[in-house]
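To illustrate the input format used throughout this study, we show a single complete record. The first block contains the structure-token representation of the backbone; no residue identities are included at this stage. The design step must infer an amino acid for every position from geometry alone.
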């Protein structure tokens, strides 16, 4: 009796898996315990083991394709066994839109046609990779190659803007860039077709038709998603033209060939990037070129101020105008994740005042000996880590049917960047010295601003701190950063009158507000945590004990 092999749930957060590689092929004899394939999950690449003996009669997912948990991967049975009915049942059982039998019958021949086309056409589809754990789509910031160019494995094809950073899309094939399917400024979903690389003159259109036919037979919803970006092409082209006006030069294609970091540095320094000579591949401008560039002195003219002497109200003639800019990947993700947090997690807030007189004195003394300058934010991170060690239930996560109490302490530190907000993570903060925390936070902040953060830098937080004190904010509330159960909003230190020993004296006060998920942390527990934090910051020597 043939058995259907489905995608197992290999981690608590896994929703789908990608077949990294098949270690067997259709027709192979399989024994229980044999490794069928390598599966790439959201956490790691793992081996898919067979629990059946028999012949591999059907492979339902190609390499590099994704399949949801419980989706059909393969069928194992007796050699020559008829599995047509089993295939129909598997497809109807895995369908979420109630597809009828006619649709099922259409899928099989289309899959066969695609297999024939894939073998006939000497070319490979390049699809949008998933570059972060929260990424659902990417925007092509710029193409570094054009149709007809020769491409080698390792060449950078394009710069892709994700929800976290701007990253480089690398080619893994040698050949000619036959087709570019996404214009600069346009977004494409993960696994969507970006380009085709193959042998010069290959019939890539046949490959695209085969891929499109498979997507159309998959689900009507998928087809709508594919056609959705089309109406926005005009807006994307308008946005592209305005962007080009700022960074365009006489380089090929009318665009500046520069790395994201070089563009960012030039913008921050106020340089006209069109005047910088590139030393990278094909004249590409890199970080070194911006650092070594010396701009010419420009004459700044100041307009004379005129004072009006008439009381007559002048007639003002103006034109209403506005600009619409497509939402960045980072903003989309911030909106999605924080909306889910705010509307699914029942927030409650506790605010407490902390006297920072001794913390100010302690920081001054520490900085006389510390190899790096310690900030008040560093003191807060260290104190929070110490307080979490005493209140481990605050260092937790809501997982729906269970609560995870983390025994390790990874503190996320919110960093504001031009496009939104990033939360790099200080791992094992309770085991690190203040100078270690200070150096690491500075390094992570620099990487965040230059879009150099890697997934390992922003994943795994168990508690988050958001500090707006440096902007003059005295008090605010923050939205919980999933999967954490709590986030601490830190205000600025304000000099004010305080009562000491019955006397009104000047003092320095800082307000902190704890936002908690009431499903996990109760009011008494949150208050106890803040009380411990208050004691540590009001007597900082306790942090070091």
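Output of the design step:
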């Amino acid at each position: 009796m043939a058995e259907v092999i489905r995608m197992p749930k290999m981690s608590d957060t896994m929703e789908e898996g990608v077949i990294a590689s098949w270690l067997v092929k259709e027709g192979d004899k399989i024994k229980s315990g044999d490794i069928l394939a390598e599966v790439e999950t959201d956490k790691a690449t793992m081996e898919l083991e067979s629990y059946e003996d028999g012949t591999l009669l059907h492979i339902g997912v190609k390499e590099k394709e994704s399949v949801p948990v419980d989706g059909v991967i393969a069928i194992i049975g007796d050699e020559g066994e008829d599995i047509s009915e089993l295939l129909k049942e598997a497809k109807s059982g895995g369908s979420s839109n109630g597809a009828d039998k006619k649709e099922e019958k259409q899928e099989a021949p289309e899959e066969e046609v695609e297999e024939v086309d894939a073998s006939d056409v000497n070319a490979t589809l390049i699809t949008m990779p998933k570059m972060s754990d929260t990424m659902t789509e990417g925007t092509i910031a710029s193409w570094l190659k054009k149709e007809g160019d020769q491409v080698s494995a390792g060449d950078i094809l394009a710069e892709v803007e994700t929800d976290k950073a701007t990253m480089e899309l690398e080619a893994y094939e040698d050949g000619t860039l036959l087709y570019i399917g996404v214009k600069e400024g346009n977004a494409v979903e993960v696994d969507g077709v970006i380009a085709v690389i193959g042998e010069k003159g290959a019939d890539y259109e046949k490959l695209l038709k085969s891929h499109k036919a498979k997507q159309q037979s998959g689900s009507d919803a998928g087809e709508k998603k594919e056609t959705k970006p089309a109406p926005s092409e005009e807006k994307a082209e308008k946005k592209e033209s305005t962007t080009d006006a700022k960074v365009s030069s006489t380089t090929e294609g009318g665009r500046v060939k520069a790395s994201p970091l070089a563009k960012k540095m030039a913008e921050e320094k106020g340089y006209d990037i069109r005047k910088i000579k590139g030393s990278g591949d094909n004249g590409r401008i890199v970080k070194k070129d911006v650092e070594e560039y010396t701009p010419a002195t420009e004459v700044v003219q100041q307009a004379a101020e005129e004072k009006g002497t008439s009381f007559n109200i002048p007639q003002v003639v103006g034109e209403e105008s506005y600009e619409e800019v497509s939402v960045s990947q980072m903003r989309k993700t911030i909106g999605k994740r924080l909306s889910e947090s705010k509307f699914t997690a029942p927030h409650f807030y506790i605010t407490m005042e902390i006297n920072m007189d001794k913390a100010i004195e302690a920081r001054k003394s520490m900085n006389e000996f510390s190899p790096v300058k310690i900030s008040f934010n560093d003191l807060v991170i260290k104190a929070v880590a110490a307080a979490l060690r005493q209140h481990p239930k605050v260092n937790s996560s809501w997982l729906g049917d269970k609560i995870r109490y983390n025994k390790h302490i990874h503190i996320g530190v919110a960093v504001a960047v031009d496009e939104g907000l990033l939360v790099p993570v200080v791992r094992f903060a309770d085991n690190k010295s203040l100078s270690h925390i200070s150096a690491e936070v500075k390094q992570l902040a620099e990487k965040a601003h230059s879009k150099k953060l890697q997934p390992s830098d922003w994943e795994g937080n168990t508690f988050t701190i958001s500090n707006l004190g440096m902007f003059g904010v005295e008090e605010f509330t923050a939205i919980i950063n999933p999967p954490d159960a709590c986030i601490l909003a830190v205000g600025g230190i304000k000099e004010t009158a305080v009562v000491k020993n019955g006397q009104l004296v000047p003092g320095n006060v800082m307000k902190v507000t704890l936002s908690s998920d009431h499903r996990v942390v109760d009011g008494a527990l949150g208050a106890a945590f803040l009380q411990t934090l208050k004691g540590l910051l009001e007597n900082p020597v306790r942090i070091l004990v």
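Structural context for interpreting the output: The first helix runs from residue 84 to 94. The chain is about 30% helix and 25% strand.
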